[in-house]
Design a protein that fits this description.
The protein is of the alpha/beta class. The protein contains 26 helices and 37 strands. Strands 9-15-16-19-21-20 form a six-stranded mixed sheet, covered by helices on one side. A five-stranded parallel sheet has the order 4-5-3-6-7, with helices on both faces. A five-stranded mixed sheet has the order 14-13-10-22-23. Helix 5 packs antiparallel against helix 6 and helix 19 runs antiparallel to helix 20.
Length: 871
């Protein structure tokens, strides 16, 4: 494309790609490029020259063999050919590397023969960049005159030979496959300009990306209202903050109002307040409007009917004009958009997907990929088999895409799918960036009425095993509470190994209890490592005015998934069962026989009390503590506690006896005696500390279950309820079955409450109890937008002997322990809290197993990351 301004010829440089200069020696290629560098049109690094590479490779630009004896001339000529071949090999390697990066490269060489030029056309195609030819057509006499003034003239014969070759090859150069070919007879009279990449745009104050609309015009307007857009006097929907509206394509077909939707996006894109990407249906409709032979199916035929109706109402001329306008609009849609902030790529928006190496580039291959995704033929029903292209995304940008309808927005490896099948009766989704928030509206009805729609197929495949390839190299989960959470591949692999060999079935593994952090700072009191005052200080600093303190049972964390009856479980876990009980690592808590007894007893008690009928629920999901501790920790107690305690007591009694004998013999061992007496007391405290939590259990009679979170009923989770509600609900459960026990708690709203709570904690822990957990009023609490700790554990002085060792209270030891760092533990607690809430909500909504599993696997992966186990 060449433009003229006031008679001057204008030629644009592509923003990226290869420009091949074609012309014999002395045609002015190098001179032209120097001018363009001086004018700031080109960078010096964007030019590669065969002369420069001959010098770089062989220390010389040209070897002159003319006037030499035949024997010498042949040798010099062969040396020059070898030098040139190696120089071009090195130069083309650089061209290939720059093309891979999408950079502009201008190749300064003669390129007189088609086979030399073809190399760059092939390179450009390989790396999906354009390739243009600039042909400098200068008269032979000018070439000869210039050669005489060169420092190293090529000679009359060589110049005439090159000119002859040039003229022969010039006739077919336009048919060789260059995207553009420019013939320059007077380069000095041409103005050159630099194009910018049309795919790149700045994010500005923010963007709102809308998934596949498919003619659901009314739902689109409803979603725009939810996103804060309102129509102005011209009927343009604008956001008061100046945000940009972006569509991932497929705004038409299948639904009821394709023409209205296409005209809406055309109007808004032309006004500069919206953008839209190319898509498979958009491309098909554009070809149909161009008069191409296209089979209209899969809802595309509705557009033909709408156009016919429009022609009847507005006339054939108006319909023809509309077709042409819509055709041009659809054909001009970019295959993808790259949204930047301060020049850095942050978000990529495309219809069906994109490979990392394609980002920021345009080619026929990239257009097809962005329209259709990565496909592998068709299945037996004629539907494309879609490959999971996003598993290879590593370049860092957030990719937002549609095309593949899913019941809920899906976040995998920093890609976000926002096609929720509005036309199939699902939802129309908007994604706000940089807020990273989803906003959805339900479809008014199922417009497509497809008995085998993608949403129906998703429902049929709910319990299909997860594709572990999506997770094994690391991935991210989008959560409502925390935002995006990323987990590293090495920790994921450890979690996958655990899930593959040790956990309960994935269908039943719906929640991993989040870890709890101790206080962010240690106690200011020299006698304590942990103290409630530091927890109060933390929550007060976060703006929390009401706290709940719960007694911490020294047992083992457990999750109970209980169903009303076996049939009720089928729609949730895919098989009949009364439920499951598992540990916080996902393993079965009891042996099969004991679990069956516990589940049967709980089920009978809850049915007798009409619990399921009272709450109109088919399930009860609990986060609880099961005591006694030795139910799960028998081996730990035997190997790490009982043996250590007995050995320490025995050794210290023996040493104390020897010291007393020495004292009786008149030796001054007072300091040693006092130290050993203190150490012996520590050893007895250590033994008493763990024995407090152990007792013999015969059958299930001695088992007690203390629920502290009622996580969900069917159709509802309870993360938005206060902890007082959870405690009172636990009290209700304790009244329904002897297996349940209630948990003591206190509410703190004032300094007086804090003082009372500290006294209660001191009395309780001196009696040997573990300690307390202090929580904000609600499960999910924030300081502004930031999530704050959901719970802080404060353990007692005696109990911490089990954690930090028999003599941890010795001044030297305590001083060292007070240097502990809790930052990673706190981060894990926040992320695991968000993941656990997310997994429960997805489970209750009956989302596919893979959607629930990605949350659970992420939580288990975080648990695989090394953190001081004593915290």
């Amino acid at each position: 494309m060449t433009d003229k301004i006031e008679g001057q010829r204008i030629i644009p440089f592509p923003h990226g790609g290869i420009v091949v200069l074609v012309g014999p020696s002395n045609s002015g290629k190098t001179t032209l490029l120097r001018r363009l560098v001086d004018e700031g049109v080109l960078l010096g690094t964007e030019i590669v020259s065969s002369d420069d590479f001959r010098t770089l490779v062989g220390d010389i630009e040209f070897l002159d063999w003319k006037g030499r004896p035949r024997e010498e001339a042949d040798i010099i000529y062969n040396d020059y050919q070898l030098l040139s071949n190696l120089a071009f090999e090195a130069m083309n390697t650089v061209v290939a590397m720059r093309s891979r990066l999408g950079k502009l490269t201008v190749v300064d060489a003669t390129h007189l023969q088609p086979e030399y030029r073809r190399k760059y056309i092939e390179l450009a195609a390989e790396y999906d960049v354009p390739c243009a030819a600039w042909v400098l057509d200068v008269p032979e006499q000018t070439l000869l005159a210039r050669d005489k003034t060169r420092e190293q003239p090529r000679g009359k014969q060589r110049v005439k030979s090159q000119y002859s070759q040039f003229k022969r090859s010039l006739r077919g150069v336009r048919d060789e496959g260059f995207e553009f070919t420019y013939v320059l007879k007077e380069p000095e009279a041409v103005q050159f300009i630099r194009k910018v990449n049309p795919l790149l745009a700045e994010i500005g104050v923010g963007i709102d990306v809308i998934g596949d609309i498919h003619g659901c015009y009314d739902e689109m307007l409803e979603l725009l209202g939810e996103l804060g857009y309102a129509a102005d006097e011209e009927g343009l929907y604008r956001h008061p903050e100046g945000r940009t509206l972006i569509s991932v394509g497929d705004v038409m077909s299948r639904g009821p109002k394709s023409l209205d939707t296409m005209r809406f996006w055309k109007k808004h894109c032309e006004a500069g307040i919206a953008r839209m990407t190319d898509s498979n249906h958009g491309w098909k409709i554009a070809r149909y409007l161009s008069g191409r032979k296209v089979t209209l199916s899969h809802g595309d035929e509705h557009i033909a009917a709408e156009l016919e109706q429009y022609a009847q109402e507005a006339g054939e001329d108006a319909a023809a004009l509309l077709k042409e306008e819509l055709k041009q609009f659809l054909l001009s849609a970019p295959n993808h958009l790259v949204m930047c902030r301060d020049g850095v790529r942050r978000v990529v928006i495309t219809h069906a997907g994109i490979r990392d190496g394609y980002i920021g580039k345009q080619s026929a291959r990239i257009q097809d990929f962005c329209r259709y995704g990565d496909t592998d033929g068709f299945d037996g029903k004629g539907s494309p088999v879609r490959k999971e292209w996003y598993t290879g995304h590593e370049s860092g940008e957030l990719i937002i895409w549609g095309h593949d309808p899913r019941p809920y927005p899906t976040v995998v490896k920093n890609t976000v799918n926002i096609d929720q099948g509005a036309v199939f009766g699902g939802s129309l989704t908007g994604y706000r960036y940089p807020e990273q928030q989803f906003v959805s509206v339900r479809a008014h009805r199922d417009y497509a009425r497809d008995p085998d729609s993608p949403l129906i197929r998703w429902e049929r495949g709910r319990f299909s095993p997860p594709n572990l390839r999506k997770f094994v190299e690391g991935y991210s989960v989008m959560t409502d509470a925390y935002g995006e959470i990323s987990v590293r591949g090495d920790y994921v692999k450890a979690a996958i190994d655990s899930v593959s060999h040790f956990t309960i079935p994935l269908e039943e593994l719906v929640y991993i209890p989040p870890t709890m952090s101790p206080t962010p700072s240690v106690s200011a009191d020299e006698a304590y490592l942990e103290h409630p005052q530091e927890a109060f200080n933390y929550f007060r600093s976060q703006g929390v005015t009401t706290m709940v303190a719960e007694k911490k049972h020294m047992g083992s964390r457990a999750v109970l998934l209980l169903f009303r009856d076996e049939e009720a479980a089928v729609s949730f876990v895919g098989r009949p069962t009364l439920g499951t009980i598992y540990s916080r690592t996902g393993r079965a808590f009891f042996d099969k026989e004991t679990e069956a007894q516990v589940l049967a007893k709980l089920n009978a008690d809850l049915l007798q009390a009409d619990y399921f009928a009272k709450y109109n629920t088919e399930l009860l999901l609990l986060d609880a503590e099961i005591i006694p501790w030795n139910l799960k920790a028998r081996e730990l107690i035997a190997t790490q506690y009982a043996h250590v305690a007995e050995s320490a007591i025995m050794d210290r009694e023996k040493l104390l006896e020897k010291l007393r004998q020495a004292e009786a013999a008149g030796r001054d061992v007072t300091d040693w005696l006092q130290e050993m007496e203190e150490k012996l007391r520590n050893a007895h405290v250590f033994r008493e500390a763990f024995q407090q939590y152990c007792w013999d259990v015969s059958g299930i009679e001695g088992i007690r279950i203390a629920p502290f979170h009622t996580l969900a009923h069917s159709g509802q989770s309870f993360f938005d309820h206060t902890h007082v509600w959870h405690m009172e609900h636990g009290r209700e459960l304790a009244g329904l079955s002897p297996l349940f026990m209630e948990t003591e708690y206190r509410v703190i709203t004032s300094q007086a409450d804090e003082a009372d709570l500290i006294k209660w904690w001191q009395e309780m822990t001196e009696e040997g109890h573990e300690g307390i957990v202090i929580k904000p009023e609600t499960f999910i609490a924030r300081n502004g937008k930031a999530l704050i700790q959901p719970a802080i554990k404060v353990r007692g002085r005696k109990y911490l002997h089990i954690i930090y060792g028999i003599d941890y209270l010795h001044s030297n030891n305590l001083s060292r322990l007070k240097l502990r760092k809790t930052g990673k533990k706190e981060r894990h607690a926040l992320m695991e809290c968000a993941l656990s809430a997310e997994s429960v909500n997805r489970f209750i909504r009956k989302e596919p197993l893979e959607r629930v599993h990605e949350c659970v696997l992420a939580a288990l992966s975080l648990e695989s990351e090394p953190v001081d186990p004593r915290l």
